[in-house]
Amino acid sequence: MTNFVTDLSSAARATGNHSKARTPLLEVADLSVTFPQRGGADVHAVRGISYQVNEGEFLGIVGESGSGKSVSSLALMGLLPSSAVIDGTITFGGRALLDLNDRELSKIRGREIAMIFQDPLSAMTPVYTVGDQIAEALLLHDAALSKKAARARAVELLTVVGIPDPERRAKAFPHEFSGGMRQRAMIAMSIANDPRLIVADEPTTALDVTIQAQILEVLETAKELTGAAVVLITHDLGVVAGHADRIAVMYAGKLVENGTTADVFAEPHMPYTIGLLRSVPNMQTAGTQRLVPLEGRPPSLTALPRGCPFAARCPIAIDVCREIEPELAQHGTATGNGAADIELTGEVAATHVAACHRSAEIATGTLTRVDIFPRPAPLAVKQAETRVEDGPVLTVSNLVRHFPLTKGGVFSRRIGTVRAVDGVSFSLAAGQTLGLVGESGCGKSTTILEILEMSKPQGGQILIDGKDVATLNRAEKLRLRKEVQIVFQDPMAAIDPRLPIGDIIGEPLTVHGVKPEAIRQRVRELLDLVGLDPVMADRYPHEFSGGQRQRIGIARALATNPRLVVLDEPVSALDVSIQAGVINLLEDLKEQLGLSYLFVAHDLAIVRQIADMVAVMYLGRIVEYGPVAEVFSNPRHPYTQALISAAPIPDPVIERSRQRVLLEGDLPSPTEHIDGCNFRSRCPLFTTLDADKQALCASADPHLTPHGTVEAACHHVELTQTDPTASPSSTTHESHQEIASPRNKGESQ
Fold first, then answer.
1. The whole model's pTM is what?
2. What is the three-class DSSP state of 360?
3. Straight-line distance from the first to the last Cα atom of the chain, in angstroms, rounded to the nearest whole number
4. Between β-strands 58-62 and 229-233, what pairing exists: parallel, antiparallel or unpaired?
5. Strand partners, 617
6. What confidence tens digit (pLDDT) does each residue in 245-287 have?
7. Is the Cβ–Cβ distance between 235 and 63 less than 8 Å?
8. DSSP letter, residue 455
9. What residues contact 176, with CB distance under 8 A and at least 6 apart?
């Protein structure tokens, strides 16, 4: 390893001595951030939060969108706008940061405190190379360092974070990097000056699950090399479970629970934390039981209610909750249940505090998690008439969609081909859900767009209700479109903000010539069907929460009484607390209306929860296809194994004992022509094969072949039989969710 890495290791040993000190590295006390509004009420974004971070500790801060997580971190870095009113104290290494001016803070930022931003593309300067930007971070804090040495150090840093061909990549611009590589470069920049504290603000939110696993591994490596403490801000409880020593839960600008990760996951004392943990789908239990939604939405930070801000959503709220806001207090004893199975870093205190008037009852077991947030029963919907089907609702055979890659303006010429979809085949039976999964750029969205376009494909065949879309005239297509509808990823972007929701839901019926009175009646039925009050029909989209807007999108999709609904990442834009309610609704509607779903997603736990069949896509092709239970319990293809292995499980004991299958690098470009297996450059199995088997992978393109009830495109399926979710523990650690036996997941618990 380079001298630079040796220096970092020495620094890690040196900073390890600091962990014995009693004084915390970072101490935030009674921090409040208010944004004054011209002509309106002030926004109280952060309200009196206090926490400590010790040397070498890993703190995870979680909560729903708008809870104040990012604002608190920006206050720590001194990056809030000048209009923000900041009260309280932030002490770092014995210095009061809020008393420093910008010049003094600039000497600390990037050197002693580093930040990894959520979107590296907007955080990096697009007109400078990545290497120059890392070198700049070094030169700003070390005047004795030459430019040549800084550039050499930048290459070494890119090597440390796993960037392939670092010398060439250092000369590239940010837009020439993939999302995962840009985030690696941000981590390289953050550790350049051997900081004592790294603040990571949602560093993996926009990344695929395989790249997320790589980035978290790099972040852990950076922490070990520098000895730095880490503050990770995230909404993903699985990520926190796998990495954080301590967890702090924020709600409506305040900390509502704080404790070791083992304690908070095993014995949460705040109803909000309990609701968050119970609403998260667990890949080991998904599909066997219904999800537990956390109904409602956080209060407005401009008009906070009296008393506890969570009272309106809390099932166990009592009168005092609506009068007095509770403060953080210790209830019972922090047992550290499960902590023996988790290795902690830094100096981590065992204090477990929660802000709830009834936390003592929860801590003693008088109120259980099942009492507070019981598992819901199915939505009561009138049973639809059963429709007799002659065959599959959707059949796709050898679908091909290539795009020309051109260069030049007026006299453009073709220089290549983008193989977006390259021979995809699957079928969807009536009343079933097919999950289409894979990394970004694998062809999922192009596949569903080809189906929805209902025109002759470039290659292959699409049958909807047994009708070949290539042979339909305009009138036949219009009639068939009633049978196929879509629910989009972003409900706010998919609906017209200028129309009341009644008009939005009824618009498809207007297109098909339905009379106005019949439309109004149907809109009322649909609103009731998706769990919204029909009197809301005259309201506008901005008056609804994210989960309610997605219900509006579902109601619109059901307006024409379709047989097939395409769900394009329908819950990825929603907080985890809201996702559960939408998923439960979709499951209920499928059962009651006999719907078929084509479900596109990147969250494997949600796919396992809702799907009957799953198709795994890679570079425009399906590499594994079969029943969801069989694919998840016994994946045949190395890529499927890596996807399942990379998906976090919201249980700290299991998450830290799993053996991961990490992929190397990013998804290759679909413009590349790859002989043989197009996965072999990233395949963890390929490197273990003998020369003859490697030659087969390099020369022959594998096709889907049956292996029991599953089809897989791999030459060496017999060598891949492992359980990627397995851990040394034989049963799931019941930290936040009871395990159901394989029974009707509609039963209430």
1. 0.83
2. helix
3. 54
4. parallel
5. 622
6. 999 999 999 999 999 999 999 999 999 999 999 988 888 878 7
7. yes
8. S
9. none
